[in-house]
Amino acid sequence: MSKKDIRALTKDQLRDFFVSQGDKAFRGNQVYEWLWSKSAHSFADMTNISKQTRDQLEENFVINHIKVDNMQRSKDGTVKNAVKLHDGLIVESVLIPTESRTTACVSSQVGCSLDCEFCATARLKRMRNLNADEIYDQVAAINQESLHYYNHKLSNIVYMGMGEPLMNYNNVMKSIEMITSEEGLGMSPKRITVSTSGLPKMIKKLADDEVKFNLAVSLHSAIEDTRNKIMPFSKNFPLTDLRESLEYWYEKTQSRVTYEYVVWRDINDKQEDINALVQFCSYIPCKVNLIEYNPIDDGEYQQASNKAIDDYVYTLEKNGIVVNVRRSRGKDIDAACGQLANKS
Ligand code: SF4
Description:
- Pfam families: Radical_SAM, RlmN_N.
- Helices cover about 35% and strands about 20% of the residues.
- By secondary structure, the chain is of the alpha/beta class.
- Strand 5 and strand 6 (about 100-105) form a beta hairpin.
- It starts with a strand and ends in an 18-residue tail after the last strand.
- Bound molecules: iron/sulfur cluster.
- Iron/sulfur cluster binds near residues 112, 116 and 164.
């Protein structure tokens, strides 16, 4: 019989296990602390637990800890981890340092079932969802790297790596629960952003669940036909549905949304594209991140001219919309936006 992943157990279940073995319930608390806040890779690491108890755990459970298989460091300080999962599959996560913060960008799925035309991950088929502990481990590993290289803890997390987080809803939510809990990393949910390609039903579910983290939506165009070309799956999710779900989100959470937006040459770099975005931004409080693009090949999707970006910034600001231009980091190691899974 295959052994169970011990981190699939809640704290209460772990306490119950020890009681069922004739031990004290608080042993469950000790082990739980080792598993999460101390990020133990093996039962042998649990030095304040008796050898007999560790053997007992070994007989019943496994710890499916991720392993950083390959770590690359960019000239600009960005770190990319290729992370091996217990079944040999690989995902990538990135540490992005800036002067004021260090951000972890983590993956939520192996591959992706969506089909964004500009994205390297879309070229891999979705193989499976990540478990909550596999997402948590990526964050914990990057936190260690942040301490090692930059002498301070991780300050922010974005769920913007490989996969669509809202298609792995329960595990993403559980990972955030652990990251924010005192028994995990104790981070504030306000420092976490979940980025979705825009699935209206799931955005409403987030609102109903009254989540406290931030929401970002990869919009890329506020013109239906253009968006459908860039993100073909969005034919099933018209912009009117997306708008309605975002209004619902804001009504319930009072939390403004960030629109992630890449400007591509000859795709969405005209004044009519800018005007449509301004209109879309009028529905709820929001801000826009214009993200620099890193071509994954020499095909249709190429970075727009600086003039086009300037036109976006000018018009958005003229209309009172907060806009940031995000320069990509880690291009030399394929860690920049849209590039994950380019090589591995
Ligand atoms: S951009 Fe995100 S949602 Fe779209 S294919 Fe890539 S990983 Fe999936």
